């Protein structure tokens, strides 16, 4: 599993783009992880799935509500990463009103989750291989803080915990 001090794995994530601009076309666009994190501080939180109860009621809303506080703490972007396709992540972002606050990044084939070792096998529940619930603070592609939840828990990956870590980083 990835740990503090490690560089994020090479690869890409997808984001559904609503408004064309800055070299991005409408619809799903791929973003190289290394290029997208270079020279930036990124708050990343991962979760099992779009539109799921804890993710929709607690996890995403906490980061949306704290977006300005994260910026004030020196965080350039907030990413929500989930093993869903970019279309689903785009629809969930609209539902959660994340525009301009949280980038909804799709890890459709679970490649990022597998490369970081932050997987959760929900095959028995009909959901297949998913992302574990976690949060991490990343500076210039290197993990500076990592908070991984235990099975079924939501105690350390919340926005308040990562914001406190960003303020002290």
TrEMBL record:
EC main class here is: oxidoreductase
Among the GO molecular function terms of this UniProt record, one is:
thioredoxin peroxidase activity
PROSITE patterns, from UniProt?
THIOREDOXIN_2 (PS51352)
Catalytic activity of the protein: a hydroperoxide + 2 glutathione = an alcohol + glutathione disulfide + H2O
Where does the record place the catalytic residues? 55
Q: Which domain of life is it from?
A: Bacteria
- Record keywords, A-Z: Antioxidant, Oxidoreductase, Peroxidase, Redox-active center
Give a yes or no for keyword Oxidoreductase in this entry. yes
Q: What is its EC number?
A: 1.11.1.27
Family (UniProt) = Belongs to the peroxiredoxin family. Prx5 subfamily.
Q: PANTHER family annotated for this entry?
A: PEROXIREDOXIN, PEROXIREDOXIN-5, MITOCHONDRIAL
The name of this protein is Glutathione-dependent peroxiredoxin
